Structure formats: C-alpha cells, structure tokens
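Sample intake — UPF0173 metal-dependent hydrolase DHW03_09240
Collected from: Pedobacter yonginense
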Amino acid sequence: MKYTYYGQSCFLLETSNKKLLFDPFISHNPLAKDVDTKAIEADYILVSHGHGDHVADLVELAKQTGATVIAMPEVAEWAQKQGVEKLHPMNYGKFSFDWGTVRMVTATHSSGLPDGSYGGNPAGFVLEVDGKQIYFAGDTGLTIEMKVLADIYNLDYAILPIGGNYTMDVDDALVATKYFDCDKVIGVHYNTFPVIEIDTEVAVDKFKRENKTLLLPAIGETIDL
C-alpha cells in the first residue's frame, strides 16, 4: 500500500486495486502549490467533515475522477447540490465495500460547510484493507473514546492531526497512541497556518523517546506502508 501526502489533512492511499483520497484541500493551500490536481486519480473520496480546509477541492475532484464520496449525510447532501453524483452517506457505523471495510468513528471537533450550512458531525475513519488496519482520526482533540479502538482493532498505522489549536498537538497525539495501542503514526494537519506550526524535529524526537515512529512525509512525497 502507498501513501501520498498532499498537505494539511489530504492524502491518497493506493491499495491493491483502489485509490482512496481523503479530505481534499490542495489548490487553496500555498504549501501544496506544486501538486497538480489535474493528475490526481481516485476511486473514492473520504471526507471527515465539512470545513473548507478539508473540502475545498472535493467537488472538482469528485467530478474529475468520478469517485464515490464517502461522508456524513449532511456533507454528502451538500456535495450532491454542487453536482456530485456518486455518493455513499455514512454515520457512526461500519460498511463493507468490495475493496475493504470502513468504520466511521467519533471526532471531537465542529463541522460547517463552505456555504455556512450545517455540516453534521465530524468523524474519523478506520479502514480494513489489504490486510492492514489504518485509523485516520480526522480533525479531533484527544478523547477517551479512542480507547474503544484498542478493543476492536490491532492498528497498523494511525494518521493523526498534530498541529494543536484546532486539534490534538504532538503531546496529545502521543497519549492517543497509548489509548488505541499503535506505534506507527503519520502526522497531518500541521504547518499550514501560523497557529498550527510545529517544530518537526522536536515532534519526531518526542515519538522516538517513547519508542514510537512519527512519519512526516513532504507534500507530494509517497511512502510505502
């Protein structure tokens, strides 16, 4: 499986037979100016919540790729009104697709859509695909509900926000890894805005001291999972 980072909380997971794009915010992100959105391919687009820094390119990329959008019903309804045709609304539950299983899980955040309408509840996702279990927390603060994941899954990777202010910071993310028992973390939602800027070397070192791994791919970089 391959992971490509596009900045903020946007990334692509390439499984054995599908391409899964998450929280598309690229063209409005100055740090991602070298990413060619026209070249992005996706079979599914998974959206954690309705804030602009997670859906800014959703409509354009859904139409461009023909991907099915997986999102809370309110976000899916908004996307449909923008002309997106292939939608799979979900809530806090689990669904088995022909390529793997998706569970939507709680995130402690807020959610509004670009037009000011209600965005439903924020969420994260746990994916079971290609023999791996991967947790994308979405935008969330540290929450005790993360402990439930350890009862259900043996997570291979956790993709966590680490920028603070709007979400967990590095220290909270470390606590979270103990809640759901996962030692390999990919950091997202940092350095895009001044209030979420972090010292990446310090962050990586904090994880090392806890015998854990924090991966911080550069924007546009692809790594193997």
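Post-analysis note: Residues 106 and 145 are 8 Å apart (CA to CA).
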